[in-house]
Structure prediction request, 546 residues.
Amino acid sequence: MNYFKIVTVLACSLLAQQGLAADPADSNIDGAMADIERFEQQVGTGSVSRSTANRTLRLLNLTRQRLDGSSNQSDPSWIEADERYKALVARLSGDSTPSSASAQTTTSAATPATSAPARPATASKAPQMISQDVARLKKLMRDIKSAIDTIDQAGVKPFQAPEVAAKYQASADRNREMLARYDTFASHPEVAAITEEMAVMDRMIAFGNSEAAKTLSELGDVQARLASINQLVRATALPSLPDPLTSEALTAWIEETETIKTQSAALDPELRMIAERAYLPDSRGTVEQGAPYDMQNLDSMLHSMDRNLRKIDETLEQMALNQDAQASHVEELLEYVENLDPSTWKDQANAYLRDGASTEITARIDKQIGIIETAIAFNQVMKRDSLGQWQILLARAVTSKLTYQTGRQQALHLVRMPEEVDFDDDLDDIAKDVFSKPEYEVGDWERLVVSADKSHHESESSEVEFDKVDVRASGDIKLSGTQTTTFYEWEEFQVATAEPVGDRYFIFYNTLSYSTRGASTTPLDRWVLSSRSKSVEIPLDNIDKD
Prediction:
């Protein structure tokens, strides 16, 4: 804050409040008018105690000196100030109309109004002071300058607090009373300099009070205003992303974030305006505990809004990146589906007719369609250039789903039981006998086909059991034990069966084996069902087709 700017603005403000017919011709008239205005406000229009009247009359002696020290006593501004001064003195002296005697009494210690303008006495003719007076005046000057610096550094905002304005005014009154003790030394350079500094302090206080009143009138109840804004700020917290993230839920979420951004855009300048103009000193405790809002609370609101807006932007940016990454995964699945061939056994077994395959792949396609629809909603609301690409991808995904469903029907139409190999009729009888045993839980079959002829197999496995550990002086460790080798020998063949599972039929592959050598747990010298797996679905009408 620039001190000289305050003084300039203050002078204009005081003139506007006082309603003078003409601008003050010099600083003496300006300062005197500020004194008169202040004293008039202090004594009011009612009765005044004698002690207050006497005290004010003493202080008015300095005002009289200012008027009589003006070299523009014929100026309308001086005449008006002089008349208001005399009227105030007359009221404080007990007369409604100032008489010549009262005026003479009041101004006995000052230069007569009709005399020639007072001129500052030269240093050589100034009244003599003792050293103690000089020291006191120097201290008074330091006190006034310190008070001016304090007001200047703090600015006009603190005047919005009545207790601060009262403290400044009390400081000025104390300094003025101390200065009044040296009325007889009015022409002394030290007193004259202090008088000028006192006038500066009075102007700054008057300006501060005027600006504070104006600001408070424009701002209204700042605390109530901040409480209302705080509620709105808390309501603008970023909502959680919906789960599952459907296109409808995403659209609603984005619209909600746009509302938050609009509200924040409206609240931000209002908060910054309050921060710039309102006096919000640090307060003890929290708002929740009843403490008033201070600048830290206001800064917290601004940071909260900034954080929400930044999080919204980061979330939207991340969603855009995620969608761009998901596009490649969507295309990978669609390419896989589009390249399936229902006439090949591999695709029949893995993608079309394996139990659960159609449900799984259809669900994967539907999931990708949901991702695409969400991306389209996002791109539409955000007005992104990639909207058209996602719309093309959606059409492709819908087509791929229909293509897959058609391919499954084709696979069902083409599937057949495996080709039957030439074999001894005994294998068929062996399979039927094994399947009839309850421990294998093989149900009724619609057709049985020997799909792999009998073959001979041998293998062996070894197992070492250590029963002694020898640690030698060199640190080497020697293990000793027994190695057991087991030899296996068996024959096996494979049978395919068409069996009902619910209201559908599936092909099962069964391996039967006959072991002549093996481990202690190996069943020997009898046919057993060693493995069994469920394969593809087959329509009932296709079971007997070759």
In short: Residues 1-16, 95-126 have pLDDT under 50 and may be disordered. The beta strands are 447-471, 477-501, 504-517, 527-537. The CA atoms of residues 419 and 451 lie 6 Å apart. The longest helix spans residues 295-338.
